[in-house]
Design brief:
heterodimer; A: about 110 residues; alpha+beta; three-stranded antiparallel β-sheet; 4 helices; about 65% helix; B: about 325 residues; 3 domains; two-stranded parallel sheet; two-stranded antiparallel ribbon; 12 helices; about 5% strand; disordered C terminus
Protein backbone atom coordinates (compact mmCIF):
# COMPACT_ATOMS: atom_id res chain seq x y z
CA UNK A 1 0.00 0.00 0.00
CA UNK A 2 1.19 3.49 -0.81
CA UNK A 3 1.92 5.03 2.58
CA UNK A 4 1.69 8.55 1.14
CA UNK A 5 -2.04 7.95 0.64
CA UNK A 6 -2.40 6.98 4.31
CA UNK A 7 -0.32 9.98 5.31
CA UNK A 8 -2.70 12.41 3.63
CA UNK A 9 -5.44 11.41 6.01
CA UNK A 10 -3.37 11.81 9.15
CA UNK A 11 -0.97 14.61 8.28
CA UNK A 12 -2.96 17.13 10.32
CA UNK A 13 -2.73 14.86 13.33
CA UNK A 14 1.00 14.26 12.78
CA UNK A 15 1.74 17.98 12.50
CA UNK A 16 -0.34 18.78 15.58
CA UNK A 17 1.46 16.04 17.49
CA UNK A 18 4.88 17.39 16.54
CA UNK A 19 3.91 20.93 17.53
CA UNK A 20 2.48 19.65 20.82
CA UNK A 21 6.00 18.64 21.75
CA UNK A 22 7.42 22.09 21.08
CA UNK A 23 6.92 25.05 18.77
CA UNK A 24 8.59 24.70 15.40
CA UNK A 25 9.07 26.52 12.10
CA UNK A 26 8.05 24.94 8.80
CA UNK A 27 11.16 23.14 7.76
CA UNK A 28 11.81 21.98 11.32
CA UNK A 29 8.39 20.31 11.32
CA UNK A 30 9.28 18.50 8.12
CA UNK A 31 12.57 17.33 9.58
CA UNK A 32 11.01 16.10 12.80
CA UNK A 33 8.27 14.19 10.96
CA UNK A 34 10.94 12.48 8.85
CA UNK A 35 13.04 11.73 11.89
CA UNK A 36 9.94 10.16 13.45
CA UNK A 37 9.73 7.79 10.49
CA UNK A 38 7.40 9.53 8.04
CA UNK A 39 9.96 9.54 5.26
CA UNK A 40 7.46 10.22 2.51
CA UNK A 41 6.16 13.46 3.97
CA UNK A 42 6.30 16.24 1.37
CA UNK A 43 7.68 19.66 2.11
CA UNK A 44 4.81 21.38 0.34
CA UNK A 45 2.27 19.21 2.16
CA UNK A 46 3.63 20.20 5.54
CA UNK A 47 3.88 23.87 4.59
CA UNK A 48 0.32 23.87 3.21
CA UNK A 49 -0.99 22.05 6.28
CA UNK A 50 0.64 24.53 8.64
CA UNK A 51 -0.87 27.48 6.75
CA UNK A 52 -4.30 25.85 6.72
CA UNK A 53 -4.25 25.01 10.44
CA UNK A 54 -3.11 28.56 11.17
CA UNK A 55 -5.90 29.99 9.01
CA UNK A 56 -8.38 27.74 10.83
CA UNK A 57 -7.28 29.26 14.13
CA UNK A 58 -5.64 26.16 15.59
CA UNK A 59 -2.10 27.59 15.69
CA UNK A 60 -0.30 30.63 16.96
CA UNK A 61 2.65 31.95 15.09
CA UNK A 62 5.52 34.28 15.74
CA UNK A 63 8.59 35.29 13.83
CA UNK A 64 12.03 34.76 15.23
CA UNK A 65 14.86 36.69 13.68
CA UNK A 66 17.86 34.61 12.85
CA UNK A 67 21.41 35.81 12.54
CA UNK A 68 22.73 33.34 10.03
CA UNK A 69 19.64 32.60 7.91
CA UNK A 70 16.19 33.85 6.97
CA UNK A 71 13.56 34.77 9.53
CA UNK A 72 11.73 31.79 10.89
CA UNK A 73 8.03 31.70 11.50
CA UNK A 74 7.37 29.47 14.48
CA UNK A 75 4.06 27.74 14.98
CA UNK A 76 2.60 26.49 18.23
CA UNK A 77 -0.70 25.04 19.43
CA UNK A 78 -3.31 27.25 21.02
CA UNK A 79 -6.38 25.96 22.88
CA UNK A 80 -8.23 25.26 19.66
CA UNK A 81 -5.24 23.32 18.37
CA UNK A 82 -4.89 21.30 21.55
CA UNK A 83 -8.57 20.41 21.54
CA UNK A 84 -8.34 19.48 17.87
CA UNK A 85 -5.32 17.32 18.64
CA UNK A 86 -7.03 15.41 21.43
CA UNK A 87 -10.16 14.81 19.35
CA UNK A 88 -8.16 13.67 16.34
CA UNK A 89 -5.96 11.48 18.53
CA UNK A 90 -9.01 9.76 19.98
CA UNK A 91 -10.45 9.17 16.52
CA UNK A 92 -7.14 7.80 15.32
CA UNK A 93 -6.67 5.50 18.30
CA UNK A 94 -10.11 4.03 17.86
CA UNK A 95 -9.59 3.69 14.11
CA UNK A 96 -6.18 2.09 14.55
CA UNK A 97 -7.59 -0.37 17.10
CA UNK A 98 -10.29 -1.38 14.63
CA UNK A 99 -7.70 -1.91 11.92
CA UNK A 100 -5.50 -3.86 14.29
CA UNK A 101 -8.43 -6.11 15.13
CA UNK A 102 -9.10 -6.73 11.45
CA UNK A 103 -5.47 -7.44 10.70
CA UNK A 104 -5.08 -9.78 13.65
CA UNK A 105 -7.66 -12.08 12.08
CA UNK A 106 -5.85 -11.83 8.75
CA UNK A 107 -2.54 -12.62 10.44
CA UNK A 108 -4.07 -15.64 12.25
CA UNK A 109 -5.29 -17.08 8.96
CA UNK B 1 26.42 26.39 -2.09
CA UNK B 2 25.25 27.12 -5.60
CA UNK B 3 21.82 25.60 -6.12
CA UNK B 4 20.85 25.55 -9.73
CA UNK B 5 17.44 26.91 -8.89
CA UNK B 6 17.62 29.69 -6.39
CA UNK B 7 14.78 29.88 -3.83
CA UNK B 8 13.34 33.14 -5.08
CA UNK B 9 13.11 31.86 -8.61
CA UNK B 10 11.52 28.63 -7.42
CA UNK B 11 9.02 30.55 -5.26
CA UNK B 12 8.12 32.76 -8.21
CA UNK B 13 7.40 29.71 -10.34
CA UNK B 14 5.21 28.23 -7.59
CA UNK B 15 3.29 31.50 -7.25
CA UNK B 16 2.67 31.56 -10.99
CA UNK B 17 1.19 28.07 -10.78
CA UNK B 18 -1.29 29.22 -8.14
CA UNK B 19 -2.38 32.44 -9.81
CA UNK B 20 -5.91 31.12 -10.27
CA UNK B 21 -6.55 31.04 -6.52
CA UNK B 22 -8.44 33.96 -5.01
CA UNK B 23 -5.87 36.63 -4.11
CA UNK B 24 -6.66 36.46 -0.39
CA UNK B 25 -6.20 32.69 -0.23
CA UNK B 26 -3.03 32.86 -2.24
CA UNK B 27 -1.51 35.57 -0.08
CA UNK B 28 -2.31 33.67 3.10
CA UNK B 29 -0.90 30.46 1.75
CA UNK B 30 2.29 31.89 0.28
CA UNK B 31 2.97 34.46 2.99
CA UNK B 32 6.29 32.96 4.07
CA UNK B 33 7.02 30.66 1.20
CA UNK B 34 10.21 32.56 0.39
CA UNK B 35 11.56 32.23 3.93
CA UNK B 36 10.58 28.61 4.02
CA UNK B 37 12.23 27.78 0.71
CA UNK B 38 15.34 29.70 1.73
CA UNK B 39 15.49 27.53 4.85
CA UNK B 40 15.14 24.39 2.77
CA UNK B 41 17.77 25.60 0.32
CA UNK B 42 20.20 26.40 3.11
CA UNK B 43 19.96 22.83 4.33
CA UNK B 44 21.67 21.19 1.42
CA UNK B 45 23.69 21.78 -1.70
CA UNK B 46 21.32 19.67 -3.75
CA UNK B 47 19.27 21.99 -5.99
CA UNK B 48 15.71 22.70 -4.86
CA UNK B 49 14.19 21.25 -7.97
CA UNK B 50 15.81 17.89 -7.29
CA UNK B 51 14.76 17.84 -3.66
CA UNK B 52 11.24 19.23 -3.96
CA UNK B 53 10.27 18.29 -7.50
CA UNK B 54 9.12 20.75 -10.12
CA UNK B 55 7.48 24.01 -9.03
CA UNK B 56 4.27 22.76 -10.66
CA UNK B 57 4.27 19.57 -8.58
CA UNK B 58 5.12 21.56 -5.45
CA UNK B 59 2.24 23.95 -6.16
CA UNK B 60 -0.18 21.06 -6.67
CA UNK B 61 0.86 19.55 -3.34
CA UNK B 62 0.48 22.90 -1.61
CA UNK B 63 -2.95 23.35 -3.09
CA UNK B 64 -4.05 19.90 -1.96
CA UNK B 65 -2.69 20.33 1.58
CA UNK B 66 -3.99 23.85 2.01
CA UNK B 67 -7.47 23.66 0.59
CA UNK B 68 -8.07 19.96 0.51
CA UNK B 69 -8.97 20.60 -3.13
CA UNK B 70 -7.52 18.55 -5.93
CA UNK B 71 -5.30 20.50 -8.26
CA UNK B 72 -7.34 21.64 -11.19
CA UNK B 73 -5.84 20.89 -14.57
CA UNK B 74 -4.98 23.98 -16.53
CA UNK B 75 -7.69 24.51 -19.03
CA UNK B 76 -7.55 25.80 -22.54
CA UNK B 77 -9.33 28.95 -23.60
CA UNK B 78 -12.08 26.77 -25.05
CA UNK B 79 -12.42 24.95 -21.74
CA UNK B 80 -12.68 28.22 -19.85
CA UNK B 81 -15.26 29.53 -22.30
CA UNK B 82 -17.24 26.31 -21.84
CA UNK B 83 -17.18 26.81 -18.08
CA UNK B 84 -18.82 30.22 -18.30
CA UNK B 85 -22.39 29.00 -18.98
CA UNK B 86 -22.04 26.50 -16.13
CA UNK B 87 -20.87 29.21 -13.76
CA UNK B 88 -23.67 31.54 -14.85
CA UNK B 89 -26.15 28.70 -14.36
CA UNK B 90 -24.90 28.05 -10.82
CA UNK B 91 -25.02 31.75 -10.02
CA UNK B 92 -28.57 32.08 -11.37
CA UNK B 93 -29.75 29.10 -9.36
CA UNK B 94 -29.76 31.49 -6.41
CA UNK B 95 -32.75 33.29 -7.95
CA UNK B 96 -36.09 31.62 -7.16
CA UNK B 97 -37.71 32.40 -10.56
CA UNK B 98 -34.78 30.83 -12.39
CA UNK B 99 -34.96 27.79 -10.11
CA UNK B 100 -38.65 27.37 -10.91
CA UNK B 101 -38.03 27.60 -14.65
CA UNK B 102 -35.25 25.04 -14.39
CA UNK B 103 -37.56 22.83 -12.33
CA UNK B 104 -40.37 22.77 -14.86
CA UNK B 105 -38.20 22.53 -17.96
CA UNK B 106 -38.13 18.71 -17.77
CA UNK B 107 -41.93 18.74 -17.95
CA UNK B 108 -41.69 20.40 -21.35
CA UNK B 109 -39.60 17.58 -22.72
CA UNK B 110 -42.50 15.60 -24.23
CA UNK B 111 -43.58 18.73 -26.09
CA UNK B 112 -40.05 19.11 -27.41
CA UNK B 113 -40.05 15.48 -28.55
CA UNK B 114 -43.23 16.07 -30.55
CA UNK B 115 -42.01 19.33 -32.08
CA UNK B 116 -38.69 17.70 -32.86
CA UNK B 117 -40.39 14.86 -34.73
CA UNK B 118 -42.63 17.27 -36.60
CA UNK B 119 -39.68 19.41 -37.67
CA UNK B 120 -37.60 16.45 -38.80
CA UNK B 121 -40.53 15.07 -40.77
CA UNK B 122 -41.04 18.40 -42.53
CA UNK B 123 -37.35 18.59 -43.37
CA UNK B 124 -37.57 15.16 -44.98
CA UNK B 125 -40.78 16.07 -46.77
CA UNK B 126 -39.35 19.28 -48.14
CA UNK B 127 -36.29 17.34 -49.30
CA UNK B 128 -38.55 15.19 -51.48
CA UNK B 129 -40.48 18.16 -52.76
CA UNK B 130 -43.49 18.06 -50.47
CA UNK B 131 -42.43 21.03 -48.47
CA UNK B 132 -44.54 23.36 -46.44
CA UNK B 133 -45.15 24.36 -42.89
CA UNK B 134 -47.99 21.86 -42.71
CA UNK B 135 -47.96 18.45 -44.39
CA UNK B 136 -49.87 18.77 -47.63
CA UNK B 137 -51.50 15.39 -48.12
CA UNK B 138 -52.57 12.30 -46.15
CA UNK B 139 -49.38 10.39 -46.95
CA UNK B 140 -47.30 13.25 -45.61
CA UNK B 141 -49.47 13.39 -42.51
CA UNK B 142 -49.03 9.68 -41.83
CA UNK B 143 -45.28 10.02 -42.31
CA UNK B 144 -45.15 13.03 -40.00
CA UNK B 145 -47.12 11.27 -37.28
CA UNK B 146 -44.82 8.27 -37.51
CA UNK B 147 -41.74 10.44 -37.12
CA UNK B 148 -43.31 12.19 -34.12
CA UNK B 149 -44.09 8.81 -32.59
CA UNK B 150 -40.51 7.67 -33.13
CA UNK B 151 -39.18 10.91 -31.64
CA UNK B 152 -41.31 10.53 -28.52
CA UNK B 153 -40.33 6.88 -28.20
CA UNK B 154 -36.66 7.83 -28.43
CA UNK B 155 -37.14 10.60 -25.90
CA UNK B 156 -38.79 8.32 -23.36
CA UNK B 157 -36.10 5.72 -23.85
CA UNK B 158 -33.33 8.28 -23.34
CA UNK B 159 -34.93 9.58 -20.16
CA UNK B 160 -35.13 6.00 -18.91
CA UNK B 161 -31.34 6.01 -19.10
CA UNK B 162 -30.80 3.61 -21.96
CA UNK B 163 -28.40 5.90 -23.78
CA UNK B 164 -25.19 7.01 -22.20
CA UNK B 165 -21.72 8.23 -23.01
CA UNK B 166 -20.81 8.22 -26.67
CA UNK B 167 -24.27 6.97 -27.60
CA UNK B 168 -25.63 10.37 -26.71
CA UNK B 169 -23.50 12.20 -29.25
CA UNK B 170 -25.66 11.36 -32.30
CA UNK B 171 -28.72 12.17 -30.24
CA UNK B 172 -27.34 15.58 -29.31
CA UNK B 173 -26.54 16.22 -32.97
CA UNK B 174 -30.05 15.15 -33.99
CA UNK B 175 -31.52 17.46 -31.35
CA UNK B 176 -29.44 20.35 -32.62
CA UNK B 177 -30.59 19.59 -36.16
CA UNK B 178 -34.22 19.47 -35.08
CA UNK B 179 -33.91 22.74 -33.19
CA UNK B 180 -32.50 24.30 -36.32
CA UNK B 181 -35.35 22.88 -38.39
CA UNK B 182 -37.90 24.28 -35.95
CA UNK B 183 -36.33 27.74 -36.16
CA UNK B 184 -36.23 27.60 -39.96
CA UNK B 185 -39.81 26.40 -40.01
CA UNK B 186 -40.96 29.26 -37.79
CA UNK B 187 -39.12 31.72 -39.99
CA UNK B 188 -40.70 30.20 -43.09
CA UNK B 189 -44.14 30.32 -41.50
CA UNK B 190 -43.62 33.99 -40.87
CA UNK B 191 -43.01 34.51 -44.58
CA UNK B 192 -45.98 32.66 -45.99
CA UNK B 193 -48.42 35.24 -44.71
CA UNK B 194 -48.60 38.23 -47.00
CA UNK B 195 -46.26 39.24 -49.74
CA UNK B 196 -46.68 42.95 -50.10
CA UNK B 197 -44.79 43.19 -53.34
CA UNK B 198 -43.58 40.75 -55.90
CA UNK B 199 -40.05 41.18 -54.58
CA UNK B 200 -39.21 37.52 -54.96
CA UNK B 201 -41.10 37.64 -58.29
CA UNK B 202 -43.18 34.59 -57.46
CA UNK B 203 -44.81 32.88 -60.36
CA UNK B 204 -48.38 34.13 -60.80
CA UNK B 205 -51.18 31.71 -60.29
CA UNK B 206 -53.57 31.77 -63.17
CA UNK B 207 -56.99 30.90 -62.06
CA UNK B 208 -58.55 29.05 -64.95
CA UNK B 209 -62.05 27.69 -64.88
CA UNK B 210 -62.49 29.52 -61.68
CA UNK B 211 -65.60 27.55 -61.38
CA UNK B 212 -68.80 29.30 -61.12
CA UNK B 213 -70.55 31.13 -58.47
CA UNK B 214 -74.27 31.43 -58.66
CA UNK B 215 -74.14 30.06 -62.18
CA UNK B 216 -71.92 32.79 -63.54
CA UNK B 217 -68.25 32.70 -64.39
CA UNK B 218 -65.77 34.84 -62.55
CA UNK B 219 -63.51 37.27 -64.28
CA UNK B 220 -63.27 39.86 -61.58
CA UNK B 221 -63.29 39.99 -57.82
CA UNK B 222 -64.95 42.77 -55.87
CA UNK B 223 -63.75 42.78 -52.29
CA UNK B 224 -65.65 44.41 -49.48
CA UNK B 225 -64.66 44.95 -45.90
CA UNK B 226 -66.76 43.44 -43.15
CA UNK B 227 -68.50 46.75 -42.60
CA UNK B 228 -69.61 46.93 -46.20
CA UNK B 229 -66.95 49.35 -47.37
CA UNK B 230 -65.94 48.69 -50.92
CA UNK B 231 -62.23 48.00 -51.12
CA UNK B 232 -59.95 48.89 -53.98
CA UNK B 233 -56.47 47.81 -54.94
CA UNK B 234 -56.72 44.61 -52.94
CA UNK B 235 -53.89 42.34 -53.97
CA UNK B 236 -54.62 38.66 -53.72
CA UNK B 237 -52.04 35.92 -53.33
CA UNK B 238 -52.31 32.23 -52.86
CA UNK B 239 -50.85 30.26 -49.96
CA UNK B 240 -47.40 30.25 -51.52
CA UNK B 241 -47.32 33.97 -52.08
CA UNK B 242 -48.03 33.80 -55.78
CA UNK B 243 -50.38 36.43 -57.22
CA UNK B 244 -53.84 35.17 -58.13
CA UNK B 245 -54.61 36.15 -61.69
CA UNK B 246 -57.99 35.92 -63.34
CA UNK B 247 -58.41 35.85 -67.09
CA UNK B 248 -60.97 38.49 -68.07
CA UNK B 249 -59.75 38.10 -71.68
CA UNK B 250 -61.56 34.80 -71.78
CA UNK B 251 -64.79 36.66 -71.19
CA UNK B 252 -64.33 39.41 -73.73
CA UNK B 253 -62.96 41.88 -71.21
CA UNK B 254 -59.63 43.47 -70.74
CA UNK B 255 -57.91 45.48 -68.04
CA UNK B 256 -58.03 49.21 -68.58
CA UNK B 257 -54.59 50.67 -68.78
CA UNK B 258 -53.97 54.15 -67.57
CA UNK B 259 -52.34 56.36 -70.15
CA UNK B 260 -49.63 57.52 -67.83
CA UNK B 261 -47.88 55.44 -65.26
CA UNK B 262 -47.38 51.77 -64.87
CA UNK B 263 -49.76 49.10 -66.08
CA UNK B 264 -52.09 47.93 -63.33
CA UNK B 265 -51.16 44.85 -61.38
CA UNK B 266 -53.08 41.88 -62.66
CA UNK B 267 -53.89 40.72 -59.16
CA UNK B 268 -55.05 44.07 -57.83
CA UNK B 269 -58.78 43.73 -57.35
CA UNK B 270 -61.29 44.78 -58.39
CA UNK B 271 -59.81 44.88 -61.86
CA UNK B 272 -60.64 47.94 -63.93
CA UNK B 273 -62.22 46.17 -66.90
CA UNK B 274 -63.56 47.28 -70.23
CA UNK B 275 -65.21 45.36 -72.99
CA UNK B 276 -62.91 44.18 -75.70
CA UNK B 277 -65.78 43.97 -78.19
CA UNK B 278 -68.61 46.24 -79.08
CA UNK B 279 -72.24 45.26 -79.33
CA UNK B 280 -71.71 43.90 -82.82
CA UNK B 281 -68.83 41.67 -81.80
CA UNK B 282 -66.17 43.81 -83.41
CA UNK B 283 -62.97 44.25 -81.50
CA UNK B 284 -62.54 47.55 -79.76
CA UNK B 285 -59.05 48.99 -79.91
CA UNK B 286 -57.36 48.99 -76.57
CA UNK B 287 -57.59 52.50 -75.29
CA UNK B 288 -55.94 53.96 -72.29
CA UNK B 289 -57.82 55.45 -69.44
CA UNK B 290 -57.22 59.14 -69.24
CA UNK B 291 -59.13 62.12 -68.02
CA UNK B 292 -61.17 62.07 -71.20
CA UNK B 293 -62.41 58.61 -70.78
CA UNK B 294 -63.90 56.71 -73.64
CA UNK B 295 -67.55 55.85 -73.36
CA UNK B 296 -66.83 52.19 -73.58
CA UNK B 297 -64.45 52.37 -70.68
CA UNK B 298 -65.45 52.58 -67.10
CA UNK B 299 -68.17 55.13 -66.60
CA UNK B 300 -66.35 57.17 -64.01
CA UNK B 301 -63.11 57.07 -65.94
CA UNK B 302 -61.04 56.88 -62.83
CA UNK B 303 -57.59 55.41 -62.84
CA UNK B 304 -58.30 54.27 -59.35
CA UNK B 305 -60.96 51.73 -59.91
CA UNK B 306 -63.80 51.47 -57.53
CA UNK B 307 -66.11 48.52 -57.43
CA UNK B 308 -68.94 50.47 -58.90
CA UNK B 309 -66.88 51.45 -61.91
CA UNK B 310 -65.92 47.95 -62.87
CA UNK B 311 -67.81 45.85 -65.25
CA UNK B 312 -68.77 42.43 -64.17
CA UNK B 313 -70.81 41.05 -61.39
CA UNK B 314 -70.89 44.12 -59.27
CA UNK B 315 -73.20 44.12 -56.32
CA UNK B 316 -76.11 46.39 -55.81
CA UNK B 317 -75.31 49.97 -56.74
CA UNK B 318 -76.04 51.09 -53.22
CA UNK B 319 -72.62 49.83 -52.27
CA UNK B 320 -74.16 47.64 -49.66
CA UNK B 321 -73.11 44.33 -51.06
CA UNK B 322 -75.08 41.19 -50.85
CA UNK B 323 -73.19 38.82 -48.72
CA UNK B 324 -72.72 36.37 -51.51
CA UNK B 325 -71.20 38.98 -53.73
CA UNK B 326 -68.32 39.48 -51.37
CA UNK B 327 -67.59 35.83 -51.02
CA UNK B 328 -66.01 35.14 -54.38
CA UNK B 329 -62.88 36.96 -53.31
CA UNK B 330 -62.09 34.10 -51.02
CA UNK B 331 -62.86 31.45 -53.54
CA UNK B 332 -59.92 31.64 -55.91
CA UNK B 333 -57.36 31.31 -53.15
CA UNK B 334 -58.79 28.00 -52.14
CA UNK B 335 -58.18 26.52 -55.52
CA UNK B 336 -54.88 25.40 -56.86
Amino acid sequence: MDSSQLLKGVLDLAVLAVLDGRDSYGYDVVRRLREAGLDDVGDASVYGTLRRLFKAGALTSYVVASDEGPHRKYYGLNDVGRSLLSDSARTWTSFAATMDGLLKEVGAG
Amino acid sequence: MTPRTDPEEYARAVRAELDDLPAKDRDELLEDLDDHLAEVAAESDVPLEERLGSPAAYAAELRAAYGGRPARPRRSVVGRAGAVPGAVHRRLLGLPPYRQVVAFLPELRPAWWAIRGYALALVVLSAIGRGGVVPGDPVSWVFTLMVIWASVWLGRRTVAGAGSGWRRTPLILANAGAAWAVLVGVAAAGHTGVYETASGSPQPVEVRNVGSFDGGEIYNIVPYAADGTALSDVRLYDQDGRPIILEPEMYGKRIVRSCAGEPPMANSYPLPLESAFDENGNPVLAACDSDTAQPSATPEGSAEPSPESSAGPSPEPSGKPAKKAAEPSARPSERR
